[in-house]
Every structure is written in structure tokens, then in C-alpha cells.
Write a structure and sequence with these properties.
The complex is a heterodimer. By secondary structure, chain A is mostly helical. Helix content of chain A is about 75%, strand content about 0%. Chain A is globular and about 80 Å long. Chain B is α/β, with parallel strands linked by helices. Chain B is built from 10 helices and 10 strands. In chain B, the strands form 2 sheets. Chain B has a 6-stranded mixed sheet, with helices on both faces. The chains are: A mainly alpha, B alpha/beta.
């Protein structure tokens, strides 16, 4: 879609990125001497899946969701509850969480696909609050005095030998990030992906060109919910803790900030956004109460100064630099 | 081939199109003309599924289309362009044509997601075909540019070729010459003849009388929502009612 870098330049950059990504946990352990920084990388990988999912819905299909954390939490609780109550193995709990989120996403999209812009954002806000409240006042199970979720839920640890440290987690997650991003690229450059973009650009004309708008909006919602639900389902096993409050506005706005800051409608944008914001949050950990303030400021910066996000901004800079070089060359050859 | 029978559509108390019947014959250019506010575009929208007519039928090769959703009508074989250009601005020129092919593609959602052989082969094929369409209107050098960066006349051409990409039985052109200069209009004239030669059928709404009289095989004249006259260009030019409607309508 964009030709900012020639394919000749892309290959070495790709190899360099791959080497850094593969060596990262070992480098971090050498420098920091502990697992904590590797865990941050793991969280970043989880969020990359979640935010890429949001990108399919918001960036490509133009359907805003301010309740995406709800899908994350649905995935997380499904996965966590199956683990705690039924001792279900990981390779079943994670798909179960992702699939339940997908189903609920499709159900939500059924009526929501008729809504536009701020009406849709209000509906998704309400959806997030409903999920939060449902978990908060969750029904009791057996003779326990509290609901199945209570305020928070710790995850019983089932011994998984191939995931007993964060470095192993890192590669486990990296594998899924690669798969999910490949699937995203394939989807975008296809009949379905072009239908998504056509809906974003002009719903009326998309319909006239043979795109079933409602069906494709529902597909976009479902795919997006699958990505984010999957991320939540993995997250809960990684962190071993989840609380209903995660379904609230704050987490949804975090996802949206990451996406907008990195750049919507691209492969790289969500990745850059997640890395940048997550590292920033780590840096200002002592000032946690001011997180929402930070999101607000970042969103303002992006909307006013960098409409394409960091990725879009860098891309534009490269293009204009190239153009300047070319004009300089032309001017020289004229002399 | 395409037939609209006794179409009536009302908006509240206003009858925008009143009991209009028309026929589009295969391999011809049929034109719909009339003064501003005559209901031409409204009738177009009834045929292409934007509006549902209150009364009447739209039949394409024996298939009833009235009241169907726009995307189904496109799949049935009616494609269109818009009076106000409705391109997908932030997609590339090539992608616009590819979206135009949407209803003719067979790759499913799962093919798209898993990058199956079927999808890869189809993609290769349609990208080639889309380039051919772009060459047909001389836009191939802009294939990877944003559609929004094209000049006005080229945007019109892209819209026509996006409509043709679904290989429709009938293509509806809503004021294709609007905003074009004289040279562009002459080129459009030639282009429409070439499209006709490829075996397509055209229904066109247009204001430019000179262009219409040149290109059309058959003309319907609408006035205040009703059919005023129909006939060949020569008949229409000499019809006293039509002349009155265009020149002396106020008296």
C-alpha cells in the first residue's frame, strides 16, 4: 500500500529487527540481571495482539470501540475460571476464552452494526460497563460466600514445564504474535479486508459496489474480539491475576491510546504504540494515579500534531526527506 | 433487459417520481434527461437499491430487484457511479477497482484469513485484471496513488472503471460529465462508445444536451417526476413538450 521504503532496504531492516527480537530476553537478563524486564516484554507482546485486534476494527473498518477491554476481560475470566475450577489445560482455556469473546463480539455487533460514530462509541462504553458490573456482582458458586470473581481473582498455578520462566513465555508469546500479525496482513490484503476499508471510507459506495456492509461489520467485530479475547486469555496465565475493574474505561482507553499513538491502519503502528506507551507507563509507575491524565495528553498530542500516529509521522518524514533529496538532485543536474 | 415498471416514490407528501416506466435495451446507451429536480437521480436510486420505491417493479432479465439491498442488486448485475464522486479516498486507485470486483470474487473469509492457495491465485488474477481496467481508461500509472490525489476528471474515470470492474449487465452513470471541461467531455464520449463495444449496456443521467444527443440511442425525458416524452434523439429534439419544458417552462 505504501512505498516509503524500497524492498531493497526492507530486507536488511527486517533481518536486523528479527535478530534484536530473538536476542532481546537474553540481552535484558544480562543487563538487568532479573526477569522483571523480560516480563514487561511479555506484556508488550500480549498487548500487541490486543491492539492489533482493535486496529482491525477501528483502523481498518472505521468502527470505534471504547469498550474493547471488555473482550480482553471476557477472554481472561473464561480462561482463568476454567483453569481454577476445572483444572483445564492451557491449550484449551486460551482458545475457549478467545472464542467466547468472539461470540459475544458478534452478538454485540448484531445491533451495534446499525450505529454510527458517537452512537457506536456510547454503545461500546455501555458494553464495557455491563461486563464490569456483571463480573463485580457475579453469581455465587456452591456454598462460597462470595461470587466466582469477587474483587479480583488469583489464578491457581498448574505446573506447565515449558512455561516456567519469563524467557520461555516470551518465545511462546512471540510465536503467537507472529501468527496473529501474519493473519492480520493476509486478511487486510484480501476481499474481506478491502470490504472493511471500503466501509470505513464510504459505507454508501461500499454497499453499491456489492459489499454486504452489515455482515462485514459483524465479521470485523468478531475478528477484533477474537484477537483481544485471545490476548486476555493468555494474559491471565502470564500475570496470574485479573480483576473486574480491568473491563472498565481505563483499560479500553489504554488500548485506544496505544493504537492512535502508534498509528491506525497499519501493521507497525500498533506495535510501536504498545511499546512506547507500555515503557512510558513503566517509567512513571510512581505516578500511577495520573495515568488517565497522561492518556489524555498523549491523545491530544496525537490528534493535533500527528494524525497518523508515530508511524504515520515517521513515514511522512521519510517521504518528504526523499522528495527533498530528489528536488535537490534535480536542481543540481539543472545547474 | 432492464425494465422499470410504474415506479412511484414519495417522500412525505412530495411525489418525487410518479408512475414512470422505462426500458433499457441491451447493447445501447439509454439516457435519462430532464430539468433540475425532475427526479432523475431519485429514479436511479430506486433502480440501484438506495431507495425502495413505494410502487412499481424493477426487473433485470426476469429477476425482480425492487426493495433489494444495494449489494444484492450489484451482485445481480447493476453497477453505478454517483453524481457526487463517492470513491474510497484513502485507498489506492488499484484497491478501488479491486473493491469494485467484490461481488464477483469467490474467496471466503477463511481463505482470506489463512492465505489459502485459492485466495493467492484469485488475488494474482484480479490484480492483473484491475491493471487492465486501469490501462483501459489510462490510469495505470497512478495505480498505487491514493484515489483522493487524482484530479477531478480522473476521479470520474476511476469511478466508471470501478463500476465496470464487477462486469455488470447494466452500468448506471449519474452525470458522468459533470464538472468536466470540453476536452474531457470529448474523451468521455469516445470512452462510452468503447465501453459499448465491449458489450456493456449503459443507462446515463446527464445535463449536457450536446453530449446526450451525440451518444444516446434512446432518451427518456422526466419533468416534475413524470415521464414527459421518450424517443430517439431526433424525436426528442423536435418534441414541442420537451422544448417547452426546457425553454419555456416558467410561463
Amino acid at each position: 500500500m505504501n512505498n516509503t521504503l524500497s524492498t531493497k532496504k526492507k530486507l536488511p531492516i527486517g533481518i536486523a529487527v528479527a535478530v534484536v527480537v530473538l536476542a532481546l530476553p537474553f540481552i535484558l537478563q544480562l543487563i538487568a540481571g532479573n526477569d522483571y524486564s523480560v516480563m514487561i516484554c511479555c506484556i508488550i507482546l500480549v498487548y500487541v495482539i490486543a491492539v492489533s485486534g482493535l486496529d482491525i476494527l477501528f483502523g481498518y473498518s472505521g468502527q470505534i470501540s471504547l469498550g474493547h477491554a471488555a473482550f480482553f476481560v471476557i477472554g481472561a475470566y473464561t480462561s482463568g475460571l476454567l483453569n481454577n475450577y476445572f483444572n483445564t489445560p492451557l491449550w484449551l482455556t486460551i482458545p475457549a476464552g478467545a472464542l467466547l469473546a468472539t461470540g459475544i463480539g458478534a452478538l454485540l455487533a448484531w445491533p451495534a452494526s446499525k450505529l454510527k460514530f458517537h452512537f457506536l462509541s456510547l454503545a461500546t462504553v455501555a458494553f464495557g460497563e455491563i461486563v464490569y458490573y456483571f463480573l463485580y456482582v457475579s453469581p455465587k458458586i456452591g456454598d462460597s460466600s462470595i461470587g466466582f470473581t469477587n474483587d479480583y481473582m488469583g489464578i491457581n498455578v498448574i505446573n506447565i514445564p515449558f512455561l516456567d520462566n519469563y524467557t520461555k513465555w516470551y518465545f511462546f508469546l512471540l510465536f503467537f504474535v507472529v501468527i496473529f500479525l501474519l493473519a492480520k496482513q493476509s486478511l487486510i490484503h484480501s476481499r474481506t479486508g478491502r470490504a472493511f476499508m471500503a466501509i470505513r471510507e464510504n459505507t454508501h459506495a461500499a454497499n453499491g459496489m456489492g459489499v454486504n456492509v452489515r455482515k462485514n461489520k459483524i465479521i470485523a467485530f468478531a475478528v477484533s474480539a477474537f484477537y483481544t479475547g485471545f490476548a486476555g486469555a493468555v494474559y491471565v496465565h502470564l500475570i496470574r491475576y485479573i480483576a473486574p475493574a480491568t473491563a472498565q474505561q481505563k483499560q479500553s482507553v489504554l488500548f485506544l491510546t496505544m493504537l492512535l499513538f502508534g498509528g491506525t491502519g497499519s501493521l507497525v503502528g500498533p506495535i510501536i504504540g504498545v511499546i512506547f506507551i507500555e515503557l512510558l507507563l513503566e517509567l512513571i509507575r510512581p505516578l500511577q494515579e495520573y495515568q488517565m491524565l497522561l492518556y489524555g495528553i498523549l491523545l491530544l498530542i496525537v490528534i493535533v500534531a500527528l494524525p497518523g500516529g508515530l508511524y504515520g509521522g515517521v513515514k511522512d518524514a521519510i517521504v518528504s526527506l526523499k522528495r527533498r533529496k530528489e528536488t535537490a538532485k534535480l536542481a543540481k543536474s539543472d545547474q | 433487459m432492464l425494465e422499470a415498471k410504474n415506479i412511484t416514490i414519495r417522500f412525505g407528501g412530495l411525489t418525487a417520481v410518479n408512475n414512470v416506466s422505462m426500458q433499457v435495451r441491451p447493447g445501447q446507451i439509454t439516457a435519462l434527461i430532464g430539468p433540475n429536480g425532475a427526479g432523475k437521480t431519485t429514479l436511479f436510486n430506486c433502480i440501484s437499491g438506495v431507495y425502495v420505491p413505494n410502487e412499481g417493479e424493477v426487473i433485470l432479465d426476469g429477476e425482480h430487484l425492487e426493495g433489494k439491498m444495494g449489494y444484492k442488486i450489484n451482485a445481480a448485475g447493476i453497477s453505478r457511479t454517483y453524481q457526487v464522486i463517492n470513491l474510497f479516498w484513502n485507498m489506492t486507485v488499484l484497491e478501488n477497482v479491486l473493491v469494485g470486483m467484490h461481488s464477483r470474487l469467490t474467496a471466503t473469509f477463511w481463505d482470506s484469513l489463512f492465505h489459502t492457495k485459492k485466495k493467492r491465485e484469485e488475488e494474482k488474477q484480479i490484480v492483473e485484471k484491475a491493471h487492465e481496467w486501469l490501462k483501459f481508461v489510462g490510469l495505470d500509472e497512478y495505480a498505487n496513488d491514493r484515489a483522493g490525489s487524482l484530479s477531478y476528471g480522473k476521479q470520474r474515470l476511476l469511478e466508471i472503471v470501478r463500476g465496470l470492474a464487477s462486469e455488470p449487465k447494466v452500468i448506471l452513470l449519474d452525470e458522468p460529465a459533470a464538472g468536466m471541461n470540453t476536452t474531457e467531455k470529448a474523451e468521455l464520449d469516445v470512452l462510452l462508445q468503447r465501453i459499448l463495444k465491449m458489450g456493456y449496456t449503459i443507462l446515463v443521467v446527464e445535463h449536457d444536451m450536446k453530449l446526450i444527443m451525440n451518444i444516446s440511442d434512446y432518451i427518456y425525458v422526466l419533468c416534475q417526476g413524470s415521464l414527459l416524452a421518450e424517443g430517439t434523439p431526433a424525436e426528442i429534439q423536435n418534441n414541442p413538450d420537451v422544448i417547452a419544458a426546457y425553454l419555456g417552462g416558467d410561463e
